Sequence to fold (580 residues):
Amino acid sequence: MPEPLAECAAVTRVFGRLTVVDQVDLAVGPGEMVGLLGANGAGKTTLIRMLLGLLPVSAGSVRLFGRPPSRASRRRIGYVPQTLGLYDDLTVAENLAFSRAVFSAGSRFSAAPSARNKAVPESLRPYAGVCVRDLPLGVARRAAFAQALEHAPELLLLDEPTSGVDPLARSRLWETIGAAAAAGAGAIVTTHNMEEAEECSRLVVLASGRVVAAGTAAEIVGPARTAVVHAADWAGALRLLEAAQIRAVLAGQTLRVPDRPAADVARALAGLPARVSDEPATLEERFFGLAAAGTPAGQAAG
Amino acid sequence: MNGWGAYEVSVRFGARQALDGVSITALPGQVTAVVGADGAGKTTLLRCIAGALAPGAGTVRRPPARRIGYLPPGPGVYEDLSVAENLRFRSASYDIPAPAAQRHIGEYLERTGLAAAQDRLAGQLSGGMLRKLGVVAALLPEPELLVLDEPTTGVDPVSRADLWWLIARAAAGGAAVLMSTSYTDEAARAARVLVLDSGRTLAEGTPAEIVAAIPGTIAVRPERPAAQDERRRSWRRAGAWRVWLPSAGPGHPGTVTPDLQDAVCVAALRRELADADA
Fold:
């Protein structure tokens, strides 16, 4: 295996008496797209900040491109924050020219507008002169990607990179991420969106600061099953399950009960005409089980 | 017509056509989802149905204002009141007798993990907690029509499960629930779905009907197709490529059972291809 681009070894971060990140191991190699999943408060942001060298570790070690994080290593990273990190009052071409100037010491921002427009990628050319504030969100996201990728970063850091766009636009953004990975870049993607998580080559699930699962989406779901209740009176079924302290999730006209044997669910529904089938769990259902297991009961951080 | 909703509603903001002849029905005891990208017109449609905006054309059918629960975009509660104060204020504004309100409030807070945060200011809650509070507040009048504008966007899966519990609870109690989302997998949980794109209806029906309406089949390929004709009908999904084959039968090699996400991609592709060929 080639040397990881980013590596955390037994990384821990303590704030006062609170251990926010607890002995986390994480490695991202060239060509890998690693999804970082976790409920709010699971430690994702703290981990990323340590990885970037913005926050010191309490214990363990962090290496970026084989060395401790530094200003020089940050230059080799492309970052797309959830808020996109573009200047609303600047045009697409001006934003790209500005970030180019920041990343390449010595070049000047004040290039002629015509030269700036030429440097805009083909697909964004029609929007080169448009202020970011006036762009449709899908286009603004593409511009943020273009800005993050322009200095050919070796590691991409993407925070919910495709939230708020339609599935086809999301797929097109993932083509861009996939192309960068195919060219040898690594990517760390933090997300709450399971459709986005399924695009990653590997996932790491954090709960209460610990890694509670890692692997491909299929490996993480593993053998987890969900009991599915098919009942004409689904509302009646929901009431019976609640009375038995079984929490069900509505799906169309069916109820899904993750992590419960179908027989338990059928017993709670005794007397109500219903069929209970046993089906594979979804990634979200499995995630919920993992997050709940890592969180003190009733203290879900929201 | 049974249920609440909008019929051929159009809204224009200056030069922009925000909604163009959109119809939707929300039936009692069901969850109806409006799915689309940011800017597709979801908020505008929900505002029309909740009575917060008068459409330029078309008709809206809704119960009296006090039988509507509406979670607008944004917090939907007062950020400088506490959780408990917000709920008391909302109950009072609907004239709900204190004991009745208290009974519901207690259970909702308990079941959604908000009970421990009762005395915190709403403005200090995390995003997921704030959305839960907003939905609980919208549920207080025991509405006939519950309109929720993106209750789960940006919310982590743990809070999302709490929000879905509240939604299911409302529908089980007989409310017509109309919610918007930008997540297709979430929309697939609704009984009926309206897919909006740039203010127009891209697809409408039960998730199964929308999927069944895809012409031809969808095949999976490990690599992006090289032939131009297939290439423009392909998209990336879960590390592989999907190709829409409009005239192929179900026996075609590599065919997959499509889901709502595939159906929405195909609908968007058809529009894109039609625009390109026009």
Q: What stands out?
A: The first helix of chain A runs from residue 44 to 51. Chain A touches chain B through 52 residues (CB under 8 Å).
